[in-house]
Amino acid sequence: MFADVARIFVKSGKGGNGHVSFRRELYVPAGGPDGGDGGKGGDVIFEVDTGLNTLEDFRNQVKYIATPGEEGGGKRMHGKNGKDMIIRVPEGTIIKDDESGKIIADMSGSNNRLVLLKGGRGGLGNMHFATPTMQAPRFAQPGQDSRELWLRLELRVIADVGLIGFPNVGKSSILTMCSNARPQVANYHFTTINPHLGVVNLSGDRSFVMADIPGLIEGASEGVGLGYQFLRHIERCKALIHVVDASGSEGRDPVEDVETIHEEIRKYDASILERPLIIAANKTDLIYNMEDPDNGYQRLKRAYEPKGIKVLPISAATNQGLRELLEAAWEFVDKIGNTPVTYQSEISPEEVGKVEQLSIILNNPTDGVFTVEGPKIDKMLGYTNLEAEKGFNFFQHFMVEQGIIKRLKKMGLKDGDTIKIYGHEFKYLDTEEYDAGKRDDFKDENFGVSDHKDAEE
Ligand SMILES: Nc1nc2c(ncn2[C@@H]2O[C@H](COP(=O)(O)OP(=O)(O)OP(=O)(O)O)[C@@H](O)[C@H]2O)c(=O)[nH]1
Ligand SMILES: [Mg+2]
Fold it and tell me: Which residues line ligand 1 (CB under 6 A)?
């Protein structure tokens, strides 16, 4: 019903596998390797679309998956790259890691495009692995894995001025009268469900963006009703116009209304109340005698003007006082200038994007033997010829890249320990003893494995 939050699943494309094939030509009995490289997997990209103002579309579709790169082909054919998944969001969308609730990115201001998850690199085909001693490599590099992540999207409207207040006090009417926006206006509570933005043009080239924020209700800060969601939108408004039904046409007291809402905001985020604020005493056309000291307008004035808060009488029905209200709002906007409220990233997608889990079994922490298992590593071994130096290097690289070595080290792996992987046994050598020069393709990696031999089985 209310579309300013959404939970979605995103996944980048896996890189295509490198291909294993050999040249076949007439009269050439044993052609060289000609397996091409795999294509790159598609990225998951977020883009701001200024035509959107809700997260409604995310209700119909939950999963956003980029396509994988294709496997390389014979005759050195490069696999096709996967297609990127482009996700369009309204400006002001905050992207959070669903699990931790931490902010990954704030799609506002200049941040209007973000590659959230990169697609996997394509694997190298066997044509890269021919050496003088290994002329017919029967292995190729698997494509890099895809990454996946559950995200929580939250829309927080960005506006210069936000119209806040109880339901039915006339917020949408004011925005309609003053701007190009056309939110629905009706005589019942919660007519407005999604925030609306309108551009207010004043004389000269002065203009600002005003937001109609759905009605706040008591208990909003505790999440009662729809309130809590709406409070979020207030965060990004530089100045606030607090609209009050000064005629008390629904039987509430206007001063109490203001206090109730201030209390809700204070509980949510007290710093919001330090922002410039104007009280718009609306529906004054329903007040019989404006000079009567007991009417809602006069009472608001007495309560708030001594605190330095402007109280302006208006009527969205007759247009009375609206110009003065907008001029007063402009003064604040002009003073504050163009510094939007944006949020800093708290976590990077690399930190939270998951790759397929590997199970690492620690046989016995004291005997120095570690067993690593998992469907992915099984597949990897299927591709790799460990007897060949290049194939073996690759495997080492894989172990580092997948974070397996790091995880093993955390579990206590040390120099001289044994790593068991599907019938193979490796002796682990720590960085210092690792001869970087010898395996210079991977010299930036900080581990070495040597002495591999097949375990007897
Ligand atoms: N007499 C009078 N009626 C008004 C005035 N402003 C708004 N109204 C009426 O009050 C009712 C509510 O107005 P809206 O603009 O929809 O109020 P809102 O604050 O946006 O309400 P929600 O979206 O439900 O939170 C409508 O019937 C309007 O016609 C005013 O200045 N005078
Ligand atoms: Mg409304």
Answer: 167-173, 185-187, 189-192, 214-215, 282-283, 285-286, 315-317
